[in-house]
Design goal:
This protein is α/β, with parallel strands linked by helices and about 280 residues long. The chain has one domain (about 5-190, about 200-240): 2-enoyl-CoA Hydratase, Chain A, domain 1. The protein is about 45% helix and about 15% strand. It has eleven helices and nine strands. The chain has helices at about 30-45, 90-100, 120-125, 150-155, 160-165, 175-180, 190-200, 205-225, 225-240, 245-255, 260-265, and strands at about 5-15, 15-20, 55-60, 105-110, 115, 130, 135-140, 170, 185. Strands 1-2-3-4-6-9 form a six-stranded mixed sheet, with helices on both faces. A three-stranded mixed sheet has the order 5-7-8. Strand 1 and strand 2 form a beta hairpin.
């Protein structure tokens, strides 16, 4: 996509490509360009013989607070084609993040601070997830709509998934590890070094072998129905946009603005913007 890239790319050690989401002033809200720049960078690493593993992290105070709902997509096209019609948006983002599974090389999500809604979908699409103890992973949008990517039951278990879907509450990094969504949690100040240490261990394995071993896990999850279930969930997301409560929330955004509408939504829960 044209224009200055919204990701920073560096190579902190041999064989390792690190990609940093770089909209810190927007808490790395995932507009079309940021998503496109991220995927472009991951695909470039996937065909670079010098790279064996990639890391995705966020600049500033958090990994990502979710999709850009504040007008940051005006004039920007989707970064890749998705069949139009009802459900195009959830199908589109699900295709984007599940596409990370289909890359040859492993991708690590390094999560600190907020990892909400679309941010949690991005991290889930990565092969490994390492978090700060005090990270917050959640989907507050369930308080007015239906998620785009229905990963929760697969990675958190039915009971916790149900609780998160019915409340919009988040879980900490430590809880994410205990439930199985993340691999390990570290103090935020140590997260960079700890994730780099894992990446260096992965980089010791030749790509032709690690790529097959990556697929051994994903193919088994596919056989169990994970990908089919997540794709089927996009239809429920589309149905959610037809509900009266969803329409009322969108009207409220038009009346008082996005920030106030979100604060009004979360006020009774005393979290996120109101904590």
């Amino acid at each position: 996509m044209p224009g200055e890239s919204l990701v920073l790319v560096d190579e902190p050690a041999p064989g390792i490509r690190r990609i940093t989401l770089n909209r810190p002033e927007k808490r790395n809200a995932l507009n079309h360009k940021l998503r496109g720049d991220l995927i472009d960078a991951l695909e470039a690493a996937d065909v670079d013989d010098a790279v064996r593993v990639s890391i995705v992290r966020g600049a500033g105070t958090c990994f990502s607070a979710g999709y850009d709902l504040g007008g940051g997509n005006e004039g920007l096209p989707y970064p890749h084609h998705t069949a139009p019609g009802d459900g195009q948006w959830p199908r589109h983002v699900t295709e984007t993040w599940m596409g990370i599974w289909d890359l040859q090389k492993p991708v690590i999500a390094q999560v600190h601070g907020y990892c909400l809604a679309g941010g949690s979908e991005l991290a889930t699409g990565c092969d490994l997830v390492y978090v700060a103890h005090d990270a917050q992973m959640g989907y507050p949008a369930t308080r007015f709509g239906v998620p785009d990517m229905h990963f929760h039951a697969w990675f958190l278990g039915m009971r916790k998934a149900m609780e998160m879907m019915l409340t919009g509450d988040s879980i900490s990094g430590d809880e994410a590890v205990q439930l199985g969504w993340a691999n390990r949690a570290f103090p935020a100040a140590e997260l960079d070094d700890e994730v780099l240490a894992v990446a260096q261990r992965i980089a010791l394995v030749p790509t032709d072998i690690s790529s097959l071993n990556k697929r051994t896990v994903h193919r088994q999850m596919d056989v169990m129905g994970l990908r089919t279930g997540i794709r089927a969930g996009t239809e429920l997301c589309a149905l959610g946009t037809k509900q009266e409560s969803f329409a009322a929330f969108i009207d409220r955004i038009d009346e008082i603005g996005l920030k106030d509408a979100l604060s009004e939504r979360d006020g009774p829960f005393h979290d996120y913007r109101t904590a």
